[in-house]
Design goal:
It catalyses: dihydroxyacetone + phosphoenolpyruvate = dihydroxyacetone phosphate + pyruvate. The chain has 212 residues and is mostly helical. Helices cover 68% and strands 2% of the residues. A two-stranded antiparallel sheet has the order 1-2. Helix 1 packs across helix 9 (191-209), helix 5 runs antiparallel to helix 6 (102-120) and helix 8 (150-168) packs antiparallel against helix 9 (191-209). It is globular. The structure holds adenosine-5'-triphosphate and magnesium ion. The site of magnesium ion has 6 residues, from loops.
């Protein structure tokens, strides 16, 4: 079970990570894009963290929708609408929930990744957010199906996400600005895949803190 407090904690932890890794994400984007990914993510989650205190009495679905809408409205560039859609979509499968089962968490991740695929018209292997997100969700599902707790599953998910980030170094970008570089994008780590791996790290840390 994930409580509303844990969901809020996850969002807070992720926002802190986006502040902490702002420069690193921007440096990755400098190499293959326009050098604003860390700035974008930090701007969005700073706005989210300002909104969080007003969301305490809302259900989890409304909290995630508010996060998504804040990201869409405060972040220019590709990542705002992509992350924003993911949070909004995740909210839609959690209608009225104050607590989440493991299956709810999996459904939320699946709906979120579906939103990113739809919005970005991308598939796995194009050097995007999806290259860490899809393997992470697969690993979480596998771990839960083997009878593990959500904390253990999220550990496996984060590991798979970082493996996905490593994989982005080996492939050509075919979406977004990085695609203009063609083969020259090889050797570089995708910024969006990296920020997504931090999301699974934040989820794992929130779950671990709850001691389950
Ligand atoms: N169509 C897409 N589908 C999924 N992820 C994408 C797509 N296009 C870009 N991305 C992700 O967005 C990241 C860049 O986000 P950023 O915040 O820098 O926005 P941006 O500068 O507008 O992006 P871009 O120049 O790639 O369009 C990339 O590293 C990639 O992971
Ligand atoms: Mg950019």
């Amino acid at each position: 079970m994930a409580t509303k407090a844990e969901v809020l904690d996850f969002i807070r932890i992720y926002g802190d990570k986006m502040a902490e890794h702002r420069q690193e994400l921007t440096d990755f984007d400098q190499a293959i894009g326009d050098g604003d990914h860390g700035i974008n993510m930090n701007r969005g989650f700073k706005a989210v963290s300002e909104k969080l205190p007003t969301l305490g009495d809302k259900n989890i679905d409304d909290i995630l929708k508010a996060v998504g809408m804040t990201l869409v409205s405060t972040v220019g560039g590709a990542s705002g609408p992509l992350y924003g859609t993911a949070f909004m979509k995740a909210g839609t499968v959690l209608k009225g929930k104050e607590e989440l089962s493991d299956q709810d968490v999996i459904s939320a991740f699946e709906e979120g990744v579906g939103g990113i695929k739809f919005r970005g018209k991308a598939v796995q292997g194009e050097k995007t957010i999806l290259d860490s997100m899809i393997p992470a969700i697969d690993a979480i599902k596998k771990s839960i199906s083997e009878g593990n707790s959500m904390t253990v599953a999220l550990e496996a998910g984060e590991k798979a996400a970082w493996e996905g980030v490593e994989y982005t170094k080996t492939i050509i970008a075919t979406k977004g600005r990085a695609s203009y570089l063609g083969e020259r994008s090889i050797g570089h780590q995708d910024p969006g895949a990296t920020s997504m791996a931090y999301l699974f790290q934040a989820a794992k840390e929130a779950a671990k803190k709850s001691g389950k």
